[in-house]
Design goal:
This protein starts with a helix and ends with a helix. Helix content is 39%, strand content 15%. The longest helix is centred in the middle third of the chain and has 19 residues, at 200-218. The protein folds into two domains: 36-66 and 350-448, Aspartate Aminotransferase, domain 1; 74-189 and 221-231 and 255-348, Type I PLP-dependent aspartate aminotransferase-like (Major domain) (Aspartate Aminotransferase, domain 2), CATH 3.40.640.10. The protein is built from 15 helices and 15 strands. β1 (38-42) and β2 (45-48) form a beta hairpin. Bound molecules: pyridoxal-5'-phosphate. Pyridoxal-5'-phosphate binds next to α6.
Length: 449
């Protein structure tokens, strides 16, 4: 790279350091180092402002599912901006892309999940879903049924209520107080770290018993919903033990509790399906929240998707009843047009099949790292994977925090042209669905190095 580019990069980095508060800023390292200035993206690759290229195994932020730089997406977005850049969808207006996307999504969702409430991203989808749970139960004469049960290590977004529903230990270290009333947490299905090394079957039994006990403690007549990511993403790519999700769903049905699948990460191909709940885990949720791969990061977009059954309850009765949730950009015509084109590309290029095939190869190859002293556990499914680094393989003891092992590995990989995401002692990967076997080989070789 020439000097001019380096100066430009340094300038942008300094401006950013001076004026931007990034998501989840770690002030100490940000003030020391600043952020990488990304300039362009093509497929699974990013280029920084110094001209260095990286395989982006993070997939942006679990979201660049069809890969970056597609002319077809640019054209669709430009055409929609020219035609209708914005119109509101509050109550008495709609637009073509919003209506068409709603119908398309209904054709892809499981069961009778035919109702779409469009949002600006994942957090707002889960936030709206929280309100829907209370509203639905109020409408059917069960106003007490507002309590939510979620899991430890869950992440459901960054609004106040979604941060309260999530329970990642690393996010709750400050003195900041989140909502506590009516929000309960049970154990994460973290098999690798389960006490006493139970078999998968025994671990599932334990978790089901804990769920039943929690419902009994609160009172089933007060529990409105169970919120669960099918695979907990930023909590550490926690693949639940065999039978767990289906049995949790059965417990919900038994106690008249809504099952909410937070598919912000797991939908749109990461696990080789448009939606993972039913196709991967045999569960038909009452509510699905999604975002990210819905528009592959080309534009911000999310959706809360819920059943006809819920809709029939909330839409009938008292004339003066409103479901008070929605956003200026709900059903944004340009975002919806981008999401529709994104889905069309996924179908036309059969990216579900590529995710399934290359995902299986990725799983297999990443598992070869198990022979390394530092690798305690390789887990995940298909294009949603994670390496848990440990100081001692046998005891599973972690490195002390100050070693910052995930970050050290990520920084070293970055130098070698590979981006993996550090989350504490983990390195997490969620590459685009267009990943090739050659990319997998490079990724695994680089991580090994
Ligand atoms: N739910 C899950 C499972 C997520 O992983 C995320 C983001 O990573 C969110 C919700 C929040 O989505 P957003 O950042 O688009 O608001």
């Amino acid at each position: 790279t020439d000097k001019g580019q380096n100066d430009a990069e340094a300038h942008l980095r300094a401006l950013d350091q001076r004026h931007t508060l990034h998501p989840w800023t770690h002030f100490d390292s940000f003030e020391r180092e600043g952020a990488m200035v990304v300039e362009s993206g093509e497929g699974c690759y990013l280029k920084d402002a110094n001209g260095k290229s990286y395989l982006d195994a993070v997939g942006g932020m679990w979201c660049t599912n069809i890969g970056l730089g597609r002319k077809e997406m640019a054209q669709t977005i430009a055409e929609q901006v020219e035609k209708l850049a914005y119109s509101s969808t509050f109550v008495d207006m709609t637009n073509g892309p919003s209506a068409l996307l709603a119908e398309k999504l209904a054709s892809l969702t499981p069961g009778d999940l035919n109702r779409m409430h469009f949002t600006t991203g994942g957090s707002t989808a889960v936030d709206s879903a929280y309100r829907l749970v209370g509203f639905y139960n109020y409408c059917r004469g069960k106003p007490e049924k507002t309590h939510i049960i979620a899991r430890d290590q869950a992440y459901h977004g960054s609004t106040f209520v979604t941060m309260s529903i999530g329970n990642k230990a690393a996010d709750k270290v400050t003195e900041f107080q989140y909502l506590r009333d009516g929000i309960h947490h049970i154990s994460a299905p973290h098999h690798y770290r389960a006490e006493g090394n139970p078999s998968e079957e025994n671990f599932t039994d334990q978790l089901i018993a804990e769920f039943e006990a929690k419902i009994a403690e609160i009172g089933a007549d007060k529990v409105g919903a169970f919120f669960a990511e099918p695979i907990q993403a930023s909590g550490g790519v926690l693949v639940p033990p065999k039978g767990y999700l289906k049995r949790m769903w059965e417990v919900c049905q038994k106690h008249d509790i809504l099952f909410l699948a937070d598919e912000v990460v797991t939908a749109f191909g990461r696990l080789g399906h448009f939606f993972a709940s039913e196709d991967e885990f045999g569960v038909v949720p009452d509510i699905i929240t999604t975002a990210k791969g819905l528009s592959s990061g080309y534009l911000p977009m999310g959706a809360m998707i819920y059943s006809d059954r819920i809709h029939d309850v909330i839409s009938q009765g008292d004339e003066n009843r409103w479901f008070t949730s929605g956003y200026t950009y709900s059903g944004h015509p340009v975002c919806c047009a981008a999401a529709l084109k994104n889905i069309e590309i996924m179908e036309r290029e059969d990216l579900m099949q590529n995710a399934t095939e290359v995902g299986a190869y990725f799983e297999e190859q990443l598992n070869t790292l198990n022979d390394l002293e530092i690798v305690g556990n390789v887990r995940g499914r298909k294009l949603m994977m994670c390496v848990e680094n440990v100081k001692d393989k046998a005891s599973k003891e972690l490195f002390p925090d100050e070693v910052d092992i995930g970050k050290r590995i990520a920084i070293t990989a970055e130098g070698l042209g590979l981006l993996v995401r550090p989350i504490g002692h983990l390195n997490v990967m969620s590459p685009p669905l267009t990943l090739t076997r050659k990319d997998v080989d490079f990724l695994v070789e680089t991580l090994r190095a």
